[in-house]
Amino acid sequence: MAFQKAVKGTALIGGGAIATVFGLSQFSQYRNKHGTFVHAQAAEAVTVPIMNHFPTREQQILALQTTGEFDVLVIGGGATGCGCALDAVTRGLKTALLERGDFSSGTSSRSTKLIHGGVRYLQKAIMKLDFEQYKMVKEALEERANLLEIAPHLSAPLPIMLPVYKWWQLPYYWLGIKLYDLVAGSQCLRSSYVLSKSRALELFPMLRKDELVGAIVYYDGQHNDARMNLAIALTAARYGAATANYAEVLRLLKTTDPASGKERVCGVRCRDVLTGQEFDVKAKCVINATGPFTDSVRKMDDQEVPNICQPSAGVHIVMPGYYSPDNMGLLDPATSDGRVIFFLPWEKMTIAGTTDSPTDVTSHPIPTEEDINFILNEVRNYLSVDVEVRRGDVLAAWSGIRPLVTDPNSKDTQSISRNHVVTISDSGLVTIAGGKWTTYRAMAQDAIDAAVQAHDLKAGSSKTIRLQLQGAEDWSPTLYIRLVQDYGLESEVAQHLASTYGDKAFEVAKIAQVTGKRWPIVGKRLVSEFPYIEAEVVYGVKEYARTAVDMISRRTRLAFLNVQAAEEALPRIVDIMGKELHWSEQKKEEELEAAKKFLYYEMGYKVKSDQLTDSSEISLLPSDIERYKKRFHMFDKDKKGFITILDVQRVLESISVQIAENTLHDILNEVDLNKNGQVELNEFLQLMSAIQKGHVSGSRLAVLMKTAEENLRQRMVIPVDRSGGGLFSQVQLLTDVGEAAEMKWLV
């Protein structure tokens, strides 16, 4: 009865809401109908020739130095900045772009990886009758459809489940999601639908069963954000834009307008970060697209201008893939503090986030333990009690700064705009700020429209709707099969290359090294558990990668998927980059250290390693302590109270297992809290206690010592000549410590 009343009540209220939204949607579609027909042909109307290959970075720097004057100069190499460059150059404007770090090195690589309109924004638009918020959702849904079309290799629709635990919520959420479909109109990816409890658990078996009523599934898009950003930059470069990463703007150049007597921005003084060389770049129009750093560039123009950026930090974590189904996300619409948490499959892992808290603007945001634990606690609320959500399963964590802005053109300058804002200063500096990843193209279009009008530039309308990005032209879902057949790549590697580089995957395959094995024929992996291969490092240098951090975080996504795997791959990455870029031994050491520092602070390695410290509490049962002491003393035969590499080698030799000395050093160093070259009994007990509590997982030392203990016990019982192949299975186990560490027998 209560459910029926809830349905009837929601239907009455919802009928009006649906009618209102439908009316708004139809009005919006009618208003833009003519524009849509024009936009449908936009990509075909591009008359600017596109090069087969993008220029080298050295050629780009030379173009910046020798071009007398550009029409448009964009500051910022994130999604919006690169979008501005692509929009301008395809209109026939002479375009330049400067980025002081790497393309997508800021907020654009640290997103939730969703291409979406924003379900929660639509809810607010309806509840508050906010037409501006409705327009933002409508625009985002249109841009979502376009982005999925222009880069299908980097993006795809993703079903997202909204579990329902109260009967009255089912019609309420169903109505909201159906309105979301309705606003999308003909660009709705797939229609949402309701699931019974049993069907929901079948599709998402990790879900908490208690009190589950059912679920609603809707569709949004998902993408590889850093690679998408890079694809926009490379596409702009191929159309002729002079784009350069590691080119820092030092100050704005100004000239006095003879007609008005006012100062006008006419370019920038910049520095090549890699060489230290400084030079001027002149331009008729300068566009500030620097995200969280918006105000710092605005103050280069006018020191007295008030700040408009209100930065907000969002933390995400990555967990093993078994925490979520391969192709089904989860939305927590109301966390304990009123925020929204997404729990999504991504790159065969599981990503969870985000938080939302005020922060200072920095180039190196750091995830906090408090935020990580908040996300973990919210995840626990939705997963089955059978799934132990462990702190040790956090493989990577990062913080991104969302550049929320107040609109200086609004009467209420204190209110935060959820949409983007375009402003033009008295000196002609164009600033584009706010918005979201999904709407980067529309933001760029608005910025260039404003620039064309304010600076009287000779250009037509935007050409970027349906304009395919780098790698999309000849991509197909079955392209990876040709890579397997033509080059002898592993199927997993071929799928990865196809979904990362699109039709340019063949260029990577052509330079892949022969493995010397029967299969795969080519493609040496950087780390065994991920499909990244060494050839990608060589190709990444061609894609303007200039540091090891560029390679582990944005050309590949290793740092965002598993910080320990990224650290393991670093030496080989640095060697390959060193050869390509002619690095000295000192430079290689510097790159190695800089990349390790990046992993330690910005990608969550520090907060992960802090789970095991010299002050960690040992909370073990007396029986467990005795058991672990016996295991420890199997290695510490001399009762020294600590074990060294020599002790471990001696035990391994006794069971005929060989592990390289440098590998053993790394294994012990993970647990050696005092960094004195030895693991003390107390450190070992702290490790085992942390493993039992779920704070640490994947400890190679714990796996090694357990394996050795089991092997020695078997040798005491089974004669050597009858032990069969047991040794091989133990050695094989050691080679896959990540999987072994998840097993209950570890402790």
UniProtKB/TrEMBL annotation:
<comment type="pathway">
    <text>Polyol metabolism; glycerol degradation.</text>
</comment>
<dbReference type="GO" id="GO:0006072">
    <property type="term" value="P:glycerol-3-phosphate metabolic process"/>
</dbReference>
<dbReference type="InterPro" id="IPR018247">
    <property type="entry name" value="EF_Hand_1_Ca_BS"/>
</dbReference>
<protein>
    <recommendedName>
        <fullName>Glycerol-3-phosphate dehydrogenase</fullName>
        <ecNumber>1.1.5.3</ecNumber>
    </recommendedName>
</protein>
<dbReference type="InterPro" id="IPR036188">
    <property type="entry name" value="FAD/NAD-bd_sf"/>
</dbReference>
<dbReference type="GO" id="GO:0005739">
    <property type="term" value="C:mitochondrion"/>
</dbReference>
<feature type="domain" description="EF-hand">
    <location>
        <begin position="623"/>
        <end position="658"/>
    </location>
</feature>
<keyword id="KW-0274">FAD</keyword>
<feature type="domain" description="EF-hand">
    <location>
        <begin position="659"/>
        <end position="694"/>
    </location>
</feature>
<dbReference type="InterPro" id="IPR011992">
    <property type="entry name" value="EF-hand-dom_pair"/>
</dbReference>
<keyword id="KW-0285">Flavoprotein</keyword>
<dbReference type="InterPro" id="IPR038299">
    <property type="entry name" value="DAO_C_sf"/>
</dbReference>
<keyword id="KW-0496">Mitochondrion</keyword>
<keyword id="KW-0677">Repeat</keyword>
<comment type="similarity">
    <text>Belongs to the FAD-dependent glycerol-3-phosphate dehydrogenase family.</text>
</comment>
<keyword id="KW-0560">Oxidoreductase</keyword>
<dbReference type="GO" id="GO:0005509">
    <property type="term" value="F:calcium ion binding"/>
</dbReference>
<dbReference type="GO" id="GO:0004368">
    <property type="term" value="F:glycerol-3-phosphate dehydrogenase (quinone) activity"/>
</dbReference>
<dbReference type="InterPro" id="IPR002048">
    <property type="entry name" value="EF_hand_dom"/>
</dbReference>
<dbReference type="InterPro" id="IPR000447">
    <property type="entry name" value="G3P_DH_FAD-dep"/>
</dbReference>
<dbReference type="Pfam" id="PF16901">
    <property type="entry name" value="DAO_C"/>
</dbReference>
<dbReference type="Pfam" id="PF13499">
    <property type="entry name" value="EF-hand_7"/>
</dbReference>
<dbReference type="InterPro" id="IPR006076">
    <property type="entry name" value="FAD-dep_OxRdtase"/>
</dbReference>
<comment type="function">
    <text>Calcium-responsive mitochondrial glycerol-3-phosphate dehydrogenase which seems to be a key component of the pancreatic beta-cell glucose-sensing device.</text>
</comment>
<keyword id="KW-0106">Calcium</keyword>
<keyword id="KW-0809">Transit peptide</keyword>
<dbReference type="Pfam" id="PF01266">
    <property type="entry name" value="DAO"/>
</dbReference>
<dbReference type="InterPro" id="IPR031656">
    <property type="entry name" value="DAO_C"/>
</dbReference>
<keyword id="KW-0479">Metal-binding</keyword>
